[in-house]
Amino acid sequence: MEVTRRDRLALALAVWGVLVSQVFLYPGVADLVTALGGEGDLTGGMLFLVAEFAAFVAFASLWGALSDTLGRRTPLIVAGALGGAASYLTLATLPSLGAPFVVALGVRLVGGAMTIGAFSLAITMLADLTGGNGRNMGAAGIAIGLGAALGSVVGGRLSTFDPLAPLYAAAAVLVAVAILVTTVTDRAPDTTRVKFGTILRRLAAKPVFGIPFAFGFIDRMTAGFFSLVGVFYFRQEFGVDAALAGGILALFFVPFALLQYPMGALSDRIGRFIPVVGGSVLFGLSIVGVGVAPTLLPAAAAMLVVGVFGAMVAPATMALVTDLAEPGERGAALGGFNVFGSLGFLAGFIIGGSVAEVVGYFESFLVVGLAEVAIALVAFRAVRRLDPEQSAQTLSSAD
């Protein structure tokens, strides 16, 4: 039991580290894009973030299925983390080489392909642990939230010092992640190993995964929206600098992080239905609340509320994926969840950014917030059908 707790902490720190490295870049993305030869406007920032998440979409399930096939996860996480670190250092050298912005986008694609391996498989190793899927995914969720919170604050301050400083910091953190993961016992199931293609086909043959995948898509769309549009919104509408914009993002990410583990544990006891469906409705309405806030102070307070309700949804949704997956397809299942999550991030960047540019910021908050409410209403019965079965499984495992 003590070993499991220690490994849970180490893996949560690994997930945290990947998110810290990623979010370091967000508050000062406009300045970073300019330093890399692009236009430091909303479109330039959108392209820079979309490049990375396009690679997330393409490679998340592939890393997961590969780990299921090999029956090993640790060496793949190390490779992904070191590859991501190398990509950040490469980006930092481009301005001195006079490389055009398109080269930076290409490096972002490669870096995203590597980083998603470290991120997705660290979460999968958490899912391999005993102790309750809600608790394990709550540990992942708190790591994600705290990583985003710290990354937004520190990244904003680093970018005011030097637009390239977040790149060096991100590389250092990913190297630390690679070292840390080597101390964790690799518990990937090796008794049910099947071929790579078979795992992907088996996953595709289970449409029930579409339920948590759809929620993951919408939830990550919100995170992507705040990471790009939210930053530009607070900087342009309220005149704050990158450091303060990062601090405001942290108002969302801190409660989102701190409540993940208790909310995940709660979903082990009461089932996934209330946290997933009820949480999504409240999450969506609170997002709209940020957009209607007339001044900076109530908008910042609304960000806190968004974080609280977001924490209800995230760990229960990831736990539902783990509930539904067989041990030998867990890596591919969570990889698939991260594919849809990355698509959600892309949607948050593209849809949120496009609506904000064409129509306005308020309308973009309305679109994203009501999407959260809509998915809860559409999938209401589907989640309720799954919930009694999953609650029974949780109770029997606790016995």
UniProtKB/TrEMBL annotation:
PROSITE patterns: MFS (PS50850)
One function term, GO molecular function aspect: transmembrane transporter activity
The organism's place on the tree of life at top rank: Archaea
Keyword Transcription regulation: no
Keyword Membrane listed: yes
Listed InterPro entries: MFS, MFS_dom, MFS_trans_sf
Pfam families listed in its UniProt record: MFS_1
Transmembrane segments: 44-64, 76-95, 101-127, 139-159, 165-186, 207-234, 240-261, 273-293, 299-321, 333-352, 358-380
Keywords: Membrane, Transmembrane, Transmembrane helix
GO cellular component: plasma membrane
Start and end residues of each Major facilitator superfamily (MFS) profile domain: 208-399
PANTHER family for this protein: TRANSPORTER MFS SUPERFAMILY (PTHR23521:SF2)
Protein name (Swiss-Prot/TrEMBL): Major Facilitator Superfamily protein
Biological source species: Haloferax larsenii
